[in-house]
Design brief:
By secondary structure, this protein is an alpha/beta fold. 40% of the residues lie in helices and 20% in strands. It has two domains: 102 residues, Urease, subunit C, domain 1 (Roll), CATH 2.30.40; 319 residues, Alpha-Beta Barrel (TIM Barrel), CATH 3.20.20. The protein is globular, with a radius of gyration of 22 Å. The structure holds zinc ion.
């Protein structure tokens, strides 16, 4: 462990979004927490620090989707391209994504793991946790749970029959694994918890999405979460097609149905929430549940723009996620922060996103969603020891002194390139823009090489993928535009 003594900065955002910017500050760590905040006359010049960012929804894909041909398009059709995801060494693939996020200033990551190979999940969880610990980010591993509708919003056997005969065998072998019972799934989550729970790693229940889970499975999750206190993360009303499916399947109300099952609780994070209606949002707010907003993902997959003005009006909590779909496909967290800031603070919004709400999302609520802990978002003694330090001099290259608040400069210009150091739980995990725990450049080269080595197999799969995407496009068209 690189236990850090402390740091000096010219600007310390003690409580970002709440206006306190302290000049010439010194921060020390005491174990995994902030030890003290004091004065540091003239040292740390040109640096700006704030609490590290939280990525409250991600899939930790080191090899980006586009590398294996899954181009951006409507979510339901894009998803079929994941058939072709080439097997890459899990440790390297995870360490690559964690490392990129750390380098971008992220201290905590919600990893919504999406393997369907249930018999390997416990072993996979250990590998993923090792990668997170080596990089140094905090991790919530969301254990994937599903027991229906793997191929789309319908019966899998029927959907399989819609595919050309020549492709059925491959799709069945690649995707249609037999599902365990709810009780087996709950035992699996407990087992994974025993294996990897620790000071910076925790485990959550991860019903992939309500449409992929039977009521029996959702009820088991609600009951287990109420008993053991683990949080629940699921994808929730990401697309218009999901909204129509939900309205048709639950005429008495989809969100009320989930609330009745006990799934929606203060321990609940729904990812996306693009198609929530004001009534749904009220239920979410009443339950003190939250949504992890994924702005760039929703743009890239044509899903829409989350009704954040309605969230704000209802007082519903929200955080932000990158979802392995950042705007430039590079995990640049500060750019994501900026996209959301712009998209949801428009003048015409009934409740624009203020700086305070923006940082509540990227700090306080996100930390709660990932780590199930309160008390994050301010740099004070006793707070979690997670900080990101920006090269403010580089951001401020043309500024006239005294004309602008440094936080405005960071919000307008900061990118991964400006991240100098990152501290998590008092440990320096990024130094001078380099990830310290793993050799990120070497891992990136190795992952790309391993992917390209499967080129022949991948290119042979391409026509099958296109046929499958066509089939799924036709199938889901019944819900489109109604
Ligand atoms: Zn997701």
């Amino acid at each position: 462990m690189n236990a850090a003594a402390g740091l000096n900065v010219e600007y310390l955002a003690m409580a970002p979004g709440r206006g306190e910017m302290r000049r010439d500050a010194s921060v020390t760590f005491a174990d995994d927490r902030i030890g003290s905040v004091g004065a540091a006359e003239g040292q740390g010049k040109g640096l700006l620090a704030m609490p590290a960012l939280v990525d409250a929804h991600d899939h930790v894909r080191g090899l980006h989707h586009i590398a294996f041909g899954a181009r951006d398009q409507t979510f339901e059709i894009w998803r079929a391209a994941l058939y072709a995801q080439p097997p890459i060494d899990l440790y390297l693939n995870s360490a690559l994504a964690f490392g990129r996020l750390a380098r971008a200033g992220v201290g905590s990551v919600m990893h919504v793991y999406s393997s369907i190979k249930v018999d390997r999940l416990a072993e996979d969880a250990e590998i993923i946790a090792r990668a997170a610990r080596d990089v140094g980010v905090r991790l919530a591993l969301v254990v994937p749970l599903r027991d229906q509708q793997t191929l789309g919003y319908g019966n899998d056997a029927e959907l399989l029959r819609l595919h050309p005969a020549q492709d059925r065998d491959f799709i069945e072998k690649t995707w249609l694994y037999p599902f365990p019972s709810p009780a087996t799934y709950m035992d699996l989550v407990a087992d994974i918890g025993r294996r990897i729970d620790g000071p910076t790693v925790s485990v959550q229940y991860g019903p992939n999405s309500p449409q992929a889970c039977s009521d029996a499975l959702l009820a088991a999750v609600a009951e287990a979460s109420a008993r053991d206190g683990r949080r629940v993360t699921t994808h929730l009303l990401e697309t218009s097609i999901q909204r129509r499916w939900a309205d048709e399947t639950y005429p008495d109300g989809f969100i009320p149905h989930l609330a009745n099952l006990g799934v929606i609780s203060p321990r609940f994070t729904g990812a996306h929430g693009v198609w929530l209606r004001p009534d749904d949002i009220r239920i979410m707010a009443e339950q003190d549940a939250q949504i992890a907003i994924n702005m760039s993902s929703n743009l890239r997959l044509r899903s829409g723009i989350a009704p954040v003005g309605d969230y704000i009006k209802a007082g519903m909590k929200f955080s932000f996620g990158i979802d392995s779909f950042s705007i430039d496909d590079d995990e640049d967290a500060f750019r994501e922060l900026r996209v959301g800031h712009w998209l949801f603070s428009l003048d015409a919004s009934p409740a624009p996103l203020t700086q305070q709400l923006l940082f509540d999302g990227w700090h306080r609520n996100g930390f709660k969603a990932v780590n199930n802990r309160d008390g994050y978002g301010e740099v004070t003694a006793g707070a979690p020891g997670d900080l990101v330090v920006l090269d403010y001099d580089a951001l401020a290259y043309d500024l006239i002194d005294g004309m602008i608040d440094p936080m405005e400069v960071a919000l307008t210009r900061a990118t991964t390139a400006h991240v100098k150091d990152v501290y998590v739980a008092g440990r320096r995990i990024v130094g001078d823009g380099r990830v310290l725990g793993v050799d990120l450049d070497a891992i990136e080269r190795e992952v790309a090489k391993a992917a390209r080595a499967q080129g022949e197999r991948m290119r042979a799969l391409k026509p099958m993928l296109e046929r499958s995407q066509h089939t799924l496009g036709d199938f889901h068209a019944r819900w489109r535009g109604r």
